[in-house]
Structure formats: structure tokens, C-alpha cells
Amino acid sequence: xxxxxxxxxxxxxxRWIAAGFALTILxxxxxISFGLSRLNAISDTLDGIVNVELAAIESxxxxxxxxxxxxxxxxxxxxxxxPFERDEMxxxxxxxxxxxxxxxxxxxxxxxxxKEKALLEKQRQFTNVAIPLQLxxxxxxxxxxxxxxxxxxxxxxxxxxxxVIAVLKELLDHELDKSSALAEEVRSKRQQAYVFMxxxxxxxxxxxxxxxxxxxxxxxxxxxxxxxxxxxxxxALKDIEYEKLAMNKHAIVSITDxxxxxxxxxEMLTKACGYSRDELIGxxxxxxxxxxHPPAFFEEMWKTILRGDVWQGELCNxxxxxxxxxxATTIVPFLDDAGQPYQYVAIRTDxxxxxxAEKILLRDKEQLEVLIQxxxxxxxxxxxxxxxxxxxxxxxxxxxxxxxxxxxxxxxxNRRALDEAIRKEIxxxxxxxxxxxxILFDIxxxxxxxxVFGHQVGDAVLSELSRLVGGxxxxxxxxxxxxGEEFVILGVSSDMDGCLRLAEKxxxxxxxxxxxxxxxxxxxxxxxxxxxxxxxxxxxxxADEALYRAxxxxxxxxxxx
Length: 561
Hints:
By secondary structure, the chain is α+β, with helices and mostly antiparallel strands. Helix content is 69%, strand content 13%. The radius of gyration is 58 Å and the shape is rod-shaped.
């Protein structure tokens, strides 16, 4: 019975061993399956994280590269004089905007942290400020205002774009930290996987090792990818350093802390002010103060940058040797998470030569104003003399016109002036349908006066008669000497009745007037009124015929035509 018992015991032990082995195998298989599923889950999770991180880094780097190249292209546009090259650069400038926008859209489609979203929003705000300034530079260049474009580029466009690039650098730094943390997480997950697999038992060591080797290769690939990304980030940081170098070569740059102590200066500043870097670091910018600006100027500047706003203006600094240098200055405050400035970056451009030129222009302007005033005085005097000469000549011309139209003996209109007056008054009367009359009269027996008393007395009689008649007619009537002892009166707007009354009145006045040397004398009058078909000749002719009839009727009378 003992062998059977031993066999039974052996069978039982074998069964237990088999069962235990089977159970161990099942347990190992379960543990290995669980471990593999866990590793696959970890691997898939890490794959997703790495792919997202790589996509984010690629998009951020594309944005950073586009922003940097836009600044360089814009600077090249302002410095080229070739219009075709400028057009190609402008097209490239526009294409880079599209590249930047597309990269940003890809980044926004990814799962981003709140900090990443906040940095992208900050970048958007800075970009909205930078783009109009860049477009203004393009517009100034196309308008031919190159100096203004370069000034706009240095003072506004480049500082604005640098703020965009600074935000992108901060975003790259964040992604670098994130990548480093992810790499550490991968290492931690791998270590956990090793421990877990080792805990599965001695029987699963080979299988675990094989799995670990497989996992290790995969994890190493992911780590290599992350390290490659880190290398890209470091390359981007190096590019930023190159950009900083380019800015340092182009502009005068300094950085101060929140208390105004200088923490950084570039070589351009040391050359401009004459102080070494060691002499400037740790000092306050008051070291360069020139006392040119009033205290209110600096109060306003500090008020602006302390509230986080960019300040721009022109500063006069004093170099170490005591000379003055003018700089177009932009001060950009850098803010912490609480919105308080922790440092200030000042970017300057030396404009001393421009200021010197302005002084020369101002001096020349003042000299020109003095010269203009002197010349103005001379011109005023010359103009005064000219006006006097013009007035003298006008008076002379007026005298000449008077002489040309005045009878020399009597002082009334002569035959020439009368002819012109008759023509004009006839035209006016016919145009406005106004009446008009003409009186033609002469001195009765004037030849006897000349024969008895002489021509000198005769001339005196003619003068006295002109004075006597001229004082009795209307101002607007025309009185002229027709010739010899004959006279004409144009009755403007006067009909036949009015003209006859005037003629009769004058006849009586002359008859009763005592003339020097001769005493009494008389005149005969012929009166004619204007008809629709009359001309000057026909009107005078009819008045002359009426005068002839008055002579035949016994003289010293008025006869109507």
C-alpha cells in the first residue's frame, strides 16, 4: 500500500505542482498582460503628448521665424534703392504674414494650457500694434519718404516687432520647460514599468526583459524626439541672440532694473557716451543727464513707463567728455505677472547730426528772416515810391485826358468830347427808352464884337458866357463848345418841353447879363428832341436848322425843330 500511497502522494504533488505551475503561469500571463496593456497605454499617452508637443513647437518656431524674417525684410526694404528688389521684398514681407498666420491657426487648434493661451493673446495684441506700424513704413517708402520710413522703422516698427518676438521667445521657453518635464515624465514612467515588470516574478524575467527592451527602444525614440525638439528650441534661442546682436549693431541699447540701475549696455552706448561698460553697470541713468530737459520732462517719462506704457521721445545726454549727444529714444517696460515693471529696455538712435543740422537751419532761418525784413523795408520804400510815381502818372494822364476833352479857352467840353458824349447818350436813351434833347445856340453878331472890341475881348465874352450858362444847367447835362461862338447843351432824360424851358431861361439870363467891356448881348437857340431813327448827325442837323430859323426870325429867340 505504501508504493500506491507514494504514487498517490506523487500524483497529488504533481497535480499541485502542475496546478501551482499552471496558476503561476496564469498569474504570470495575467501580470504580463496587465503590464503590457499598461505599458501600451502609457506609450499611447506619451505618443499623443509628444505629437501635440512637437506640433506646438513646430508652429511656435514657424511663427518666431516668420516674425524675425519680417523685421529683417522690412529693414532691407528701407535700405534698398532698387524698385524691383523692393517689390520682391514687399511680396516676401506679405508672404511671411501668411506663414505666420497659418502657423498660429495650427497652434490654436491644439490643446493649449491657460498660460499658452494667455501668451498667444499677448502676442496677438502686440502683433495688432506692430502690423500697422510696419505698413506705415511700407507706405512711407512707396511715397518716397525714405528718411521718415527709416525713422518710423527704428523708433516704432522694430520695437513693436521685438515685443512680438519677445512673447514668442517666452512661449518657446515655456515649451522648452514643458518638454524637459515631459522627458522626465517619460523617464519616470519607464522606471515604473521596470519595477512593475520585475515584480511579475522570476519566471517572467526573460519576457519582461524582452518587453523592457522593446519599451526602452520606444521610450528612447520618444526621448530622442524630445531632445531633438530641445535642440530646435536652443537653435531658436540662438537665433534670438543673433537678432539681439543685429539690434545691438543697429541701435544704442541699455537695460535698467526696476530701481533705474543699469544692468546692461551694448557697445554702441559706450561709444556714444565715452563711458566703459564697467563705469555704467550699476549706475543710474542720471550719470548721462545733461540738464537740458526740465524736471517735468522726466516726471512725465517716469509716469508713462511706471504705468506700463512705452515712452518715446528725444533725449539730450551728456558724454563723459562733456559733449552733448541727442538720441531718439524708446523705453519699453517689462512687466511681471502682477503688471509691475521689473526692468526697462531703452533703444536709442543717435540724432545728434540731425539736431546740429536743425540748429544750422534755425540759424539760417533767423538770418533769412532778418534779411527778409530788411528787404521788406526796402521793398516797402520802393513800393511807396512806386505808388507815388503811379499816382503822379495817373494825375498826369487825368490831366492829359482833361486837356484832350476840354476846350482850352472856356474850360468846358470841346468838340471831340461832345461827339463821344452825344454817341453814348443816344445809345443809352434808345436802350432804356428815355427822352433826350439837344440845344444848339450861338452869340448874335459875334463878329461885330471881335471887329469893334478885338479878339481878346471876344475871347473874354466866350469865357464869361460859358461860366454863366454852366452854372444854370443840371449836373448831368452835357455842356460843350461846338466851335467859334456856337455851344451845345445835351439835355439828358429831357423832353422837348423841358428843353424849351431851359433854352428860354438861358436866353433871358444872357440878355439881361452885363458882359465886361461890351455890356449887353443876346443869343439865338435851336432845340431838337431825339427821334427813334436819329443819329448824332441828324439830331445836330435838326437843331442847327432850328437855330437858323431863329436867326432868320430876328435873333435873340428860341426855335424848336
